[in-house]
Structures are given as structure tokens and as C-alpha cells.
Design goal:
Elements (H helix, E strand, L loop, with lengths): L2 H28 L14 E4 L2 E4 L4 E7 L2 E6 L5 H11 L5 E3 L4 E4 L5 H38 L4 H34 L2
Antiparallel strand pairs: 1-2, 3-4, 4-6, 5-6
């Protein structure tokens, strides 16, 4: 085994951990903190023209103020399917259709709901940390296999240390995202 193989393992580890962090960020963006965000509608599929399309591809989504999301479809004939898709997504918002635009009013959060959202945020952070630990375990197993195949012990130890540093770096990023989201949720 060469140091090139070790570098590949480290690059793979970093790439996988970055993907886990990006997924965590995506999940956090879906947790609404009382402020309107177009990201709250990500993943909603509209049944239009015989196929399912992402909501963002059938209309213009904007946030005219902190408590409102407006959706203006490119084609007014798909207002009803958009409305149905939002209701079916069960995001806790009721669409208001005026014949041209759909508006979603974001209600202010209660203290109890804020605490639930913080719990949900912590759960997502823990899921991300579990993924990071799994990637670390996989990488360390590969290093141990390389060591059995002839990789020098000191190189293996240095690589294990580097993998640990990488997971520490990503865990601190998760903590920062978690802290910011908690602060956003608890701010009235």
C-alpha cells in the first residue's frame, strides 16, 4: 500500500463528511423558525401536466415579508394542483388562493412549538454526527486493512490521527450550525 492510497481514503472521508454536513444544512433549512423562507417548500412536488414537478419549477416563489411566502405560477391553470401539493406536504401551512397568487402566512411560534423545533434540530444534528462516526469507522477499517497489506505502522497511526482531526472539524461545524439554528428558533 502506498501513501497515495492513504490520501485517497482521507479525501473520500472528507468528501463523505462534507456531504453529511450539507444534508444536515438542508434538513435545518426545512425547519421553519417563524420566518418565511422559500426553502420551506423544497421537496414539494406538484402534479402538473401529467407529471410531478418541483414547486420551484412551476412558479415564482418569493417572500414579500418575514411572515408571508407567495407563489405565482407560470400558468394560472395549475393553481389548484399547487394548492393540493402544499396541503398534501403537511408543512402546517394553509394556502390562500386569490386566483392569481397563492399566499402562505407563517404564524408566530408558541414557546412549546419552539421547544419542539429545538428538539427536532438536535435530532438532525445527532443524525449527522452518527453519519460522521460511521464514515470515520469505515476509514479506520480501510487504514487497518492497508496496514495488514504492508502500510508502515507510523503512517497508519498518522492517518488515523488525521481522520480523527477531520471528524473533530466536522463535529464543530455541526455544533455551530446547531447553535445558530437554536438561536434563530428561540428568538421571538
Amino acid at each position: 500500500m502506498t501513501e497515495g492510497d492513504v490520501k485517497i481514503v482521507l479525501d473520500e472521508t472528507r468528501t463523505q463528511m462534507q456531504k453529511a454536513l450539507e444534508h444536515f444544512e438542508f434538513e435545518l433549512s426545512k425547519i421553519r423558525a417563524g420566518k418565511a423562507s422559500a426553502g420551506m417548500l423544497d421537496g414539494i412536488m406538484v402534479d402538473a401536466y401529467g407529471t410531478k414537478s418541483p414547486l420551484s419549477q412551476v412558479g415564482n416563489i418569493s417572500t414579500p415579508d418575514a411572515r408571508t411566502i407567495s407563489i405565482q405560477p407560470w400558468d394560472p391553470s395549475i393553481l389548484q394542483p399547487i394548492e393540493k401539493a402544499i396541503l398534501a406536504a403537511n408543512i402546517g401551512l394553509t394556502p390562500q388562493n386569490d386566483g392569481k397568487i397563492i399566499r402562505l402566512n407563517i404564524p408566530p411560534l408558541t414557546e412549546e412549538r419552539r421547544k419542539e423545533l429545538v428538539k427536532q434540530t438536535k435530532h438532525e444534528a445527532e443524525n449527522c454526527r452518527i453519519s460522521l462516526r460511521n464514515f470515520r469507522r469505515d476509514s479506520l477499517e480501510k487504514i487497518k486493512k492497508f496496514q495488514k497489506d504492508g502500510l508502515a505502522e507510523d503512517v497508519a497511526k498518522n492517518t488515523e490521527s488525521t481522520v480523527q482531526n477531520i471528524i473533530n472539524e466536522y463535529n464543530s461545524k455541526v455544533d455551530k450550525h446547531l447553535e445558530l439554528k437554536e438561536k434563530e428558533i428561540m428568538t421571538v
